[in-house]
Write a structure and sequence with these properties.
The protein is α/β, with parallel strands linked by helices. About 35% of the residues lie in helices and about 10% in strands. It has helices spanning about 30-40, 55-70, 85-95, 105-120, 135-140, 160-175, 185-205, 210-215, and strands at about 45-50, 75-80, 100-105, 125-130, 150, 245-250, 255-260, 265. The two termini are about 25 Å apart. The mean pLDDT is about 90.
């Protein structure tokens, strides 16, 4: 099995391969906290969707990463789409006096919360979300979300590399229905497919299930031809969280993203 790991089960079975697990069982790293502290963050609030298991688990991991770098998370706030007022939540964020806002909401929900916080006058130095690096979000909200920051475990499209051009050519040929191939789900699917092909190569001329698993488990230098910012060692990293993230921010015009330096940022593991 290859794919984008969004459940802890990906760390439990040797036949499941992923370049990054969004909700792993392994301890988080200080990557997010290191980034926030380097940009002047001192006090944080976390916004989750309490009805989503993935949001709660991901939120706890973000909290541990930020606190591991010395930034206290003073409140965990719940956002219910269609029920919670972004304006009132923004006022609550402002009243907390935080300068870091972290979230595990879906991209559009995060945009609403971010706009609510800005409208309330919250003085945020850092905002972080794993969801939202999507040009569709820019087309919908534009300058209203300028300054919003997202983190990704792959090389963003703003960093022009040969692998991106190869990817775009493949999308034009095999997925012409995509208006803009620079989207996360399409790229993740592309990388997963590349990973399966690598497993077939490692399995040899007469591939079997056992040879595939053993061969791919022995790969220690996988980076999808540069689409990943660092190498994955499947003998130890399979199903683990990404070691490094690149941070992208909506530019002042709201029409594009810009990569924030340094990139990538690679933190240190926290104690279990």
């Amino acid at each position: 099995v290859v794919g984008l790991a969004v459940e802890p089960v990906w760390t439990q079975y040797d036949n499941m391969f992923s370049y990054s697990n969004l909700v792993p069982t392994a301890p988080p790293r200080t990557t997010l906290g290191d980034f926030a502290r380097a940009r002047g963050g001192t006090r944080a609030a976390l916004v989750i969707s309490d009805t989503s298991v993935a949001s709660r688990i991901g939120g706890d991991r973000m909290r541990r990463s930020v606190e591991g770098a010395g930034i206290p998370v003073v409140a965990t706030l719940n956002y219910v789409p269609g029920a919670t007022s972004p304006e009132r939540l923004g006022q609550q964020i402002r009243s907390l006096g935080v300068d870091v806002l972290i979230s595990t909401l879906a991209a559009e929900d995060y945009a609403h919360v971010y706009m609510g916080a800005r409208a309330a006058g919250a003085r945020l130095k850092v905002t972080l979300s794993p969801s939202g690096y999507d040009r569709e979000l820019l087309r919908k909200y534009g300058q209203a979300i300028s300054g919003a920051t997202f983190f990704v475990s792959y090389t963003p499209f703003e960093s022009t590399i040969p692998a991106h051009e190869q990817y775009r050519q493949a999308m034009v040929k095999y997925a012409p229905q995509l208006r803009d191939p620079a989207e996360e789900i399409a790229l993740a699917s592309y990388i997963a497919t590349d990973l399966m092909l690598r497993g077939l190569l490692e399995a040899g001329e007469c591939p079997t299930r056992e040879n595939f698993i053993m061969g791919l488990a022995g790969v220690d230098d996988y980076n999808a031809d540069g689409l990943l910012p660092g190498f994955v060692d499947f003998s130890v990293d399979n199903g683990m969280p990404a070691k490094c993230y690149t941070f992208v921010q909506v530019d002042a015009t709201g029409a594009g993203f810009e990569i924030l330096e340094p990139h990538p940022v690679c933190g240190t593991p926290l104690p279990d």
